[in-house]
Design goal:
elongated
Length: about 475
Amino acid sequence: MLKVYIAKLEELLSDKLSYSYRNEISIMNKLYKIVKFSKYIDATLDTSILSLNSLSSLTSQINLSLASPGSVIAKKLSKLLSSCTKIKSPNKEKKEEETHTPKCDVEVSKTLSIQKGSKKLINDNQMCLQFLRQFKQDVLQTLFSSFEPADTNCLNQVSQDTITTVGQDVKENKTDESLNVNMLSKLDSTSSKQRNFVILESVPDSHVYKNSTSPNCPRLSARILKEINIFQSSLPSQIVVKTFEDRMDLLSVMIRGAKGTPYEYGLFFFDIQLPLSYPLVPPWLKYISYCSDRLNPNLYENGRVCVSLLGTWFGKEEETWNPNVSTLLQVLLSIQGLILVAEPYYNEEGLTKLKECNTDQEASRLYNEMVMVKMVQAMNKLYLSPNEVFREEIESHFKLYSRVFIERLEKWVKMSEYWNTHKNEVKKQFVEMVQEVFPEEQKSLPEFPLLPASLGFCISLKKSITNFRQSLNIF
């Protein structure tokens, strides 16, 4: 698991990139802290939080001179990673360390509620497991923040806690809190803002690419870290991305339909793999369909996604995949903004120009009728068989929006049925009729072409809504 993250640092140092002493110290000191804390926890609780073997080759690739400020930490890491090294309690080791050595011992006793001198550590196994999992997640996020030497803001934030001046012996700030408490508090505030990017423990069996070969390539690992950093900083709230500790090349994505489109209140799911040759080639992406046939010209029932960035759809040269600038986030934004649109009918091959000419509007409206019926059917199936990776998000979504979604559709059916029955008598435009007969419903009119809907649509939609209500137990 840790190999993915260490690979980036190994690549940076082996390639001899422009790398300042200050950056070197901050990253090495961060790694030292994590290893020290991990080994002490493992020795205390007889666990294996991190695979330290994946770190053993790191020091051999770090060519530090004796004059380098990072050499002190490199030696400490080498000693710490050796199999014969004994892990001492924080109190004992504190007395033996030299004054220039980074103070990396942490007050584990505070975090785990371990009383000094007591052999009884933790009786509650569930509490122990919960702590270890949280620590594991925080370690991964801490590593992310250490692997971008070009990001001076990130490096400065890291180095402020651990470094005094360049060229001097590395000392720990006396006012710094213990590693665990300090790191958890910072990452908790960060993760609370980035709930739409999550790292899960293991990939589920339901993932489309579960049985694919797991690539082992430092270059790909470094690129995966870059994609994750982009997600952590730029992922919009309407998109949720989850990856997996045991397969960082696999991701699952949930996209919420945008407001003002027939896909509003809908949820759309995709499984992704970053192939060995990524980013020289686009990512592999499959759409998880929850209805028969298509509810969008670009999303096929068999999982095919037609978008120019993936090379599965026509596009101008600047719209196709470019290994130097294209990212996975761009693919997801293309799906959200260019596929799940207000008038998907014009996404069909050869129909784009018709939209520019403002023709074939009735065909576009009829296509939206089909989309709304498929949407209800898909949401019903999703409720009955939720996506395993996003079960929590799905349950929350239905609690918040299922009733609103249904009631809005029923209003549209009611207005359309009235229009189809009385349009010859009213002799007014549909919007004028709504203002006169349904004045309270004016705000609920769709922002995309749909109303007045046909009688056939009203019949089909009412049937689908009835089935959906029964599944939700809403009457």
